[in-house]
Task: structure prediction
Amino acid sequence: MFKKILIANRGEIALRIIRACKELGIRTVAIYCEPDATARYVKKADEAYLITPGPLKGYLNIYGIVALAKNVGCDAIHPGYGFLAENPQFAEACTQAGITFIGPNSNAIKKMGLKNEARKIAQELEIPLLPGTSPLSSLDEAIKAAKEIGYPVMIKAIAGGGGRGLRICYDEEALQRQIPIAMSEAKKAFGDERVFIEKFLEKPHHIEFQIVADKHGNIIHLGERDCSIQRRHQKLIEIAPSLLLTEEIRQKMGEAAKKLARAVGYDNVGTVEFLVDENLNFYFLEMNTRIQVEHTITEEITGVDLVQTMINISAGEPLSIKQEEVKLNGYAIQCRINAEDPLNDFLPSTGTVTAYYSPGGFGIRIDGHVSVGYFVPPYYDSLLAKLVAWGRNWDEVVRRMHRALSEYIIRGVKTTIPLYIKILEDEDFRKGNFSTKFIEEKLNNLIYTEEKEPFDLAVILSAAIVAHSRV
Result:
């Protein structure tokens, strides 16, 4: 087993990995840029080092991070998610330095990293796909292909993810206008401007299967998550297991996911994503070769610690569970608590957290990195915490999550908490009647009256003390 792991990430996922390592008796090394100097994960790691250059480029400095890991005696690096997590060059740099990359091998990352290549592999395996194209070479080619596929179509970045470089077009005029925008966004986000188009499903469910594969040829899945509650193709609320799937469809999709993983020689934790229509037809979307933000709810319904599993697999250990032993117990919901203003088109919110109270009780879990005095910087993803609820059945988990959200207090920045309370009260959501269009269709009905911050002398004094300590 590893003796010391460097965590090439920040925020709540860095803290999540630190906790897993402590339970395994492994020392941890955190890295941070100046905005994170006082962050909780930095304090909880056994060692922490400032990295450069700048608040963003520091976390993307492949050779600087690997050199640091080597110099401080680390034998492994965990990339978390985002930043370098799905960068095959980073995985290769770790290997060349004699450091274990905690994730799949670089060949699997390469094969699944480009969406058009992933589509080719899925097609060869006869896994259902939506009609689509190869990378486009011209606007005329796009127009011709869209006519053949039939509108609406979706422009997608070859190297895309997180909703970036993605545009929906309902006619030719929109296609001509949106392709240059999508290419520019893809170039900025991924360094690759290539795009392709794919048939757009109007109201599908976004279903993903959790894959776990070791280095000995064993592959299992841990069931699915429904990630349909999203805005601008970025997930907000995730559910496990899906309310939509029958046991027969679950088995078919799980086997398709395992088949794809086996075909690319996958050897760690990963996620195979699908779109499912109202007739339960499913279509391969993409594969994420890393731990997912929403891994928490799979852990809650299976009892499998996915972060520790990643570490164990990378250390060469075989899987400790067989497919027939996987049992899905109850339901879990995750709400991403983002520093965003739902009343202002989800505009990111920055500032100092002046009051913080987290919910608790039976069946409640929080993965977060926020406390009073924490300054929400403008440089990173807006995720502050992940609130997770578990229940024996759907009704119980909805009621438990609603109660927990009602207890949650974060002052000083706008958050998505009030929106989630309204979603959990929505009759269609409670009945499981939702798709990827839910937020778009329901937003006007989900508008809430913003709660005013109370005059609280303790909060004001706390903020003043924090401000003075910073000076």
Observations:
- The mean pLDDT is 93.
- The CA atoms of residues 52 and 58 lie 4 Å apart.
- The first strand starts at residue 4 and ends at 7.
